[in-house]
Amino acid sequence: MFDITWIDLICLTAVKGHDIESVRRAIGVESPFRRADQVRLDRNPPPELVTISSWSEGILICQRGSGTRCAKPETLAALAAGGRSVMTACWHDRGISPMWPGWENLLALAADGQLLSALDPSDVPGRRFGHDTAALDPYLAGARFDYETVPVRRMADQEIGYGAEGSVTVAHWRYACITALERFMHADLEESMVSPDNPDHQFILSTSLPIPPIPLSEFMHMPG
C-alpha cells in the first residue's frame, strides 16, 4: 500500500469493465492536459484535472485537490452502467455533492447500474444507503475507522504534521478506504498511479457533469 492518507483532498476511483478511452467518455474528459494548458490553471476557477491510469485488470481515476468528479452520483452512475463496477473513496473537507447527506468523505460501491452501498468512512457505524448496504463489508473486514494520536520524535527544523506538539493524528478510516480499493482490484496501490510522471495520463475535465443513464433516485435507492 502506498500511503496517501496524509493528502487531505483526494478522490480515488477504481473501475472494472472499462478501458481508458471509455472512462474518458464516461466522466466527461474535455482534452488531454498539455504544457500549453498550464496557463489555464491560473484562472478562477481553474479547470479540474484528473489522472487516469491502468490498474490491475481495470482503471484508476485520481483527483487531487478540489475536484470530486468521480465521487458525484452522476459520474458513478455513468461508470457503473452496462454491467461495469466501480468503487470510489474520497475525503474532502469542502463537501462532495448535495446528493450525499452532508458528507465530506465517501466510500461507495456501484455495479450493474446500481449504487450498492455508500457510507461516510469517518462516521462508522453510521448511515448507509444503496440497494445492498452490506456490499462494502467484505472489503472492510478487520479495518479500523477511528482516529489515533501517535507520539513522534521531531528532529531539528522538521515538520511533524498536524496534531499536538510531538504527535501526529492518524485517521485509520483513510487506511480502511485504501484497503477496500486494493481488495476490490486485487492489487496494491502504487505511487505512480497517484502522481504519474507520464503527462499523457492527465486530462482536463469538462465543466458539465455526465448525464446519468437512469434517474439518480433509481440509481441511489435512497430512503425517503
Short structural description:
By secondary structure, this protein is α+β, with helices and mostly antiparallel strands. It has helices at residues 20-27, 73-79, 137-140, 172-185, 191-194, 216-220, and strands at residues 10-16, 29-32, 49-55, 58-64, 85-91, 105-111, 114-119, 128-129, 147-151, 167-171, 202-205. It is built from six helices and eleven strands.
Written description of the protein model:
The chain has 224 residues and is α+β, with helices and mostly antiparallel strands. The chain has one domain (10-211). The protein contains 6 helices and 11 strands. Strands 2-11-3-4-1-5-6-7-8 form a 9-stranded antiparallel β-sheet, with helices on both faces. The mean pLDDT is 84.
What topology emerges from the helices and strands here?
Elements (H helix, E strand, L loop, with lengths): L9 E7 L3 H8 L1 E4 L16 E7 L2 E7 L8 H7 L5 E7 L13 E7 L2 E6 L8 E2 L7 H4 L6 E5 L15 E5 H14 L5 H4 L7 E4 L10 H5 L4
Antiparallel strand pairs: 1-4, 1-5, 2-11, 3-4, 3-11, 5-6, 6-7, 7-8, 9-10
